[in-house]
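To whoever is on call:

I kicked off a structure prediction for a single chain this morning and the downstream step that reads the tokens threw a length-mismatch warning. I double-checked the sequence; it's 309 residues and nothing unusual in it as far as I can see. Pasting both halves so you can look.
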Amino acid sequence: MRSARSIAAAAEPPRAGVPWYHAATAMSPRAWRKLRQHVLVYTGLVPFLVVALFPVAWMAITAFKDEADLYRRDVNPFWFNLPPTFKNFELLAHSTYFGPSLLNSVLLAACVVATTLVTAVPAGYALARLRLPGAESLGISIFATYLVPSIILFLPLARVVGMLDLFDSWWALALVYPTFTIPFCTWLLMGFFKSLPREIEEAAWVDGCGLLGGIVRVILPLSRPGIMIATIFPITFAMNEVLYAVVFVGPREQRTVTLAIASTLIRGDIFYWGALMAAGLLVGLPLAILYIFYLDYFIRGLTGVEGAY
């Protein structure tokens, strides 16, 4: 039998100055199992973390490397063998159309987000809440249109753009891109609206809110995670799409940033790798920060849609 003094001593937290291995021996079996579980989980995530972060690290290193350092084979290519430099960023700022094209992409993304939300939010709510015949099949059909390959829709969309005389302008992309973002966001918001209890909306009606007031004051605030995904998706689509940007936009002053980078910094078999990586870093880093900042909303939005079905 253990004495009361030994039991009390084992229950005390480790004091300052006590070696960690003495403190570890005092851990309970449950704490050991929890610690071992965390170690195994994070150890299993290390390979995926390395694979995910290696391209970003390589991009950052290359963006600050001197041109002569990029082609040296007798040294370590994963670090700086010459002092870091800002020459690649200076080339990007003074010798390319990076600034105007980035502004075009930002304005284009804003237009696509506004068009998508104005269309997808009421459409998703109508398909999820209103008792429309065939609403479920209609929602699946809307999402199926998003799965159609872009090349199949190219000819009819080109005819529409030509009829509206929007060729050689990024406004053509502001017209075309919502045809891809609206179906996906409508399906996503439809599933998220279904996950919200109908009783919340009915309680708002009892308190005096009409249909529109219940949507604005109750449904939309609760749907913030889904709306956040419906905002991020058009932004990334507008910033990354290349096919329609190449065909519909010709003048340099109207090009988006992805097209401007490829056409300016790739000249035949000559690649300005440092400036290319600098441009990728300047474009991709804000999007990555945006995803990280709204990661909780992103996960809640996806799990809400998954739970709705």
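Update from on-call: the warning came from a stale cache, not from the record. Cleared it. Sanity check on the structure: The mean pLDDT is 80.
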